[in-house]
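Look at one record.

>
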Amino acid sequence: MNFMWDMAIRAGEQGRPEQELFFCQAKEYSPFFEPAFPCLNETKVENGRIELNLLYRFADIFQDILAWEGEDRETGAYAQFREFFIDAVLHAILYTDLRDGLTRREVSIRKIQEELLDGSFFRGAAGDFAGMDAGEQYRLASLVLSQMETGSSLGMFRRALKILYPKCLLYQFREDGKKLILYIGMEGTETEKSRFRFVETMFLPVGYELKVFWKYHFGIVGIEGTMRLGETALYE
């Protein structure tokens, strides 16, 4: 992690939102780095208080306030004001840092992701969508935007499935293309069923019939790998 924005993203991945972070000037730091971690190759944000070398990128903003030599420099009202002022300014800078270079599409994807989580977009799916990690949410939100632009399709449904279940197999009946069989290859827990429900409801085109097999593949005569004793599901 080399910059403040990098640490904020890493903290978010660890479940610590931006508003829980408190940025401050480090007492001990290297002049060659912005973070002030004890280990230069630190990969985790251990707590919400993040110490930085403010002079690395923001000397023009903070050098005067850091160099002030009043009586209450380290304690008292000024010290407390300086600490919270620095945090407030850095959060404002972080807002710009995180959005620097964003395209219009990127902004739209993040907005869809946010609205899927709070239920303002596709209200009934907020709980199902929340059961995914941030990376899965972002990729699915991107597909939602693509679907809004081009319409639903079986190909879009297949891409959404592969985000959650990379090894899944989707079969389409030759005689009736509207009938599908899906083999996921993992235990159908309540959590997984909730995650799958979001994909099915959001991306499966209207008019298709879908049969789902979770842990065990259905048996196919002549295909040895699908006819293992105790590991074969019956297709009804």
Observations:
- The radius of gyration is 25 Å.
- Residues 221-236 have pLDDT under 50 and may be disordered.
